[in-house]
Amino acid sequence: MKSRFALSLAALAAAGFAAAAAAPAAEAGHRECSIIGKFDRNRDGKLNVFEAKRAGKAAFAAINKDGDRTLEPGEVSQRIGAETFDKYNLIKRKGLDRVEWSRLVKARFYAANTDGDRTIECGELKTKAGHRLLAVIWN
Ligand SMILES: [Ca+2]
Ligand SMILES: [Ca+2]
Ligand SMILES: [Ca+2]
């Protein structure tokens, strides 16, 4: 029992270190905020809509496992609901293309930007709307 407990503690510590290493120093430990460091091209510590769309494009490529031009329901079911899929899927023959996906990213960007400025700050990513934005830009 004792050794098992020690093992899980070690695993927890290792996971903690890995998370801290992946995140920018200033935001260490905040999983939500590490994406800002990754796509913050102008280094202001926030995500503007262009940076968020770039993150969305990277997520699109990562999710699009079959490598075609669209995201099919099976590729996005972990991230968005069927209702959202239908709402943004304007060309119904295929799944969500890059333009449709980008529109969804933009809509969630503005929904999450509760203080109404031009950028998403770390705190805004921790809200419910922030998590909805993360769902479409995280990869
Ligand atoms: Ca920025
Ligand atoms: Ca696809
Ligand atoms: Ca903001």
Brief sketch in words of this structure:
The chain is mostly helical and 139 residues long. It has helices spanning 2-22, 31-39, 49-63, 73-76, 82-88, 98-112, 122-125, 128-137, and strands at 47-48, 119-120. Mean pLDDT is 85; it is low at 1-29.
Protein architecture, described:
- The chain has eight helices and two strands.
- With 139 residues, it is mainly α.
- The protein has one domain (30-137).
- The longest helix is centred in the first third of the chain and has 21 residues, at 2-22.
- The N and C termini lie far apart (37 Å).
- Mean pLDDT is 85; it is low at 1-29.
- One calcium ion binds at residues 64, 66, 68, 70-72, 75, 95.
